[in-house]
Design goal:
199 residues; alpha+beta; Nucleotide Exchange Factor Grpe, Chain A, domain 2; three-stranded mixed sheet; 67% helix; rod-shaped
Length: 199
Amino acid sequence: MEEKKEQHTDAAKEKANEAVQSEERNTAEDKDMKSEDVKTEENDEATELAKQLDEANALNEELKDKLLRLHAEFDNYKKRNLKEKADLIKNGGEKVLESFLPVIDDFERALDVISKSDDHKAIKEGVELIHDKFVGVLHKNGVTEIETAGLALDTDVHEAIAMVPAESEDVKGKIIDCVQRGYKLNDKVLRHAKVVVAQ
């Protein structure tokens, strides 16, 4: 009977071992299937990440190219701008100087007449005409004389070089004489008018 028990126990052990082995095989198969699923998911993720990386690299290259082109265009713009400024500085006064050429011609003719003539009245009239023409050219180019006669001293445009006693209260603080005329170019003072002020 003991032998039967042992056989029965051995058979039960074998069945239990077979069940454990079967369970282990099933677990291993499940693990293999799960690991295959995980590998498939990992492969899918890796493929997706590789695709995203390729797209990001392509976008990066495109943006680098655009940046390089933009930088080159900006450099060209700066160079053009500097060249234009240099040309303006170099030749900016061309029109102004060209407008003075007829005045020089008139001076040359006047000098020629002065050397040949003794008529002082005609010479004076000629010089006055040249002066008027010269002032006209200055006006055309935006240069105007600063007013002084009878005005109050304005230190923005006048420079007081002398003070004299006032003859009356009306002229106190006012300009009574202009020693050297002043000029403005549009609103900018080229030279202050040198004046004598009553005090």
